[in-house]
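Table 4 source record.
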Amino acid sequence: MCGLDVIFNMLLIRFWGVPGAALGTALATAVICLAKLWAVCFRSPCLRINQKEPCPYRRDILSRMVTIGLPMGFEHIAICGAMILSTRIIAPLGTVAMAANSIAVTAESICYMPGYGIANAATTLVGQSIGAGKKTLAKSFSNLATLLGCVIMTLAGILMYFICPGIFRMLTPDLQVQTLASLALRIELFAEPFYAASIVASGALRGAGDSLIPCLLNLASIWGVRLTVSVALVGRWGLPGVWFAMCLELCVRGILLVYRQQRFRW
């Protein structure tokens, strides 16, 4: 998808600017969505549609899907709302702060994307282990994945701490934006081990069917800590204050989710 996104954006931005970028991303998403549907419905030996196989309505399965999926959907909506409010908090600081925040978020994603990959693996492995009745193995997978995520994201954070000025020079020629983005991101990078723990522990718990409690912990942390502290510090410290609030919140979130992971009855 990333490759298609780049290609479509290169083609369409020249003619339509920002709307062209949005259209390019939408087209890339649509193409990948159709490709995945085709692979699942017609190519997968296990999941493809087979008209000879019955597909009875199972209320218990549907109820289980809703029980697990609904909190996750609500969590994503609430997190998006929190991100919008964060932007609203930063906006009065001016265009330099807005630009610095944007590119700092982009650079930060390089650090946390491996964590989400490990979290997806943890969800799958924990779910398979529990389905096979191997709860001890599920807990081992959960702990090992969390440790692996912490190590990888910590190393990524250390590397990013030193190379982020070079990345920002590629993203913008504005020296003020580069300097402010580097300062903000370096504050948040101290929380990468905790961020990794929160991402992977949450994924492992979802694999065990526990989606409601991680959802509530995530929301309490983001809305109760990050936004509150951001509002308190933005007037005095500006953008670095907002990113300090983010750093503090990620530490709190990591501790809460690891505590839940260790207390969970596997």
